[in-house]
Write a structure and sequence with these properties.
Length: about 220
């Protein structure tokens, strides 16, 4: 069956992600977000990672369906609270899954030790401070910041509105929870994604580089 044309909008339903969705979500991630350290750690790690969004009270995990899983989105309504939950309840599960991958990938282990080990160990002991794009609330207090962590849409359903349904669902949940600012990062060269977020009202910020030296373009939204 041919993929829908860009002008066609399939019937899409949005619901909370469930445990049974995790294998399909991992497949969508690997197919549509193929680069990144998490992918290199393998499907077992990715599965554990997505399962952590199902238990965190500050997390948002959504699945869009159009007959089958058409896409997914995960994020948080409070980045600091979500991080605290991960460190309390999921860090050892994630660490074991990551270690299992590192033990059979010496080149990956060397890169992890060189670029990430110290930062991850620090992160396991404390919550992240708001970044430059997070801003402040009235009175100078840090704004409650949510994060859109990952979104992927099946390649046959891109440009049909599925991604917008997922993002609108996320921003609506954030608004209900009183989130003052949302943020996300796109690959610096990913002009299609940047156009997509600008069209939805997100504001582009100055390029930042990750620990591998890769450039990323931040976007913010005050829902």
């Amino acid at each position: 069956m041919p993929s829908p044309a860009p002008s066609e909008t399939p019937a899409v339903s949005l619901r909370a992600m469930e445990l049974d969705d995790v294998p399909a979500v991992v497949r969508l991630h690997r197919a549509n977000l193929p680069s990144g350290f998490f992918v290199e750690l393998g499907d077992r790690f990715l599965g554990r990672y997505y399962r952590s969004f199902l238990t965190s009270p500050a997390a948002v995990a959504l699945v869009a369906e159009s007959g089958a899983a058409a896409g997914f989105l995960v994020g948080s309504t409070d980045a600091a609270a979500h991080h605290r939950h991960l460190m309390r309840f999921s860090r050892w599960d994630l660490a074991r899954a990551g270690l299992a991958s590192l033990l059979v990938r010496p080149e990956l282990t060397a890169r992890f030790m060189r670029t990430r080990a110290r930062r991850y160990l620090r992160g396991m002991r404390r919550s992240p401070a708001p970044g430059p794009a997070d801003g402040t609330a009235e009175g100078g207090a840090p704004a409650r910041t949510g994060v859109l962590s990952h979104i992927a849409v099946d390649s046959g359903l891109r440009r049909t509105g599925v991604g917008a349904v997922l993002v609108d669902g996320f921003t609506g949940i954030a608004r209900v929870h009183g989130v003052e600012r949302l943020r996300l990062y796109t690959g610096h060269g990913n002009e299609a994604a940047q156009h997509f977020y600008r069209r939805l009202g997100w504001e582009e910020r100055e390029v930042r580089h990750d620990i591998d030296g890769m450039p990323w373009t931040p976007f913010i939204l005050d829902p």
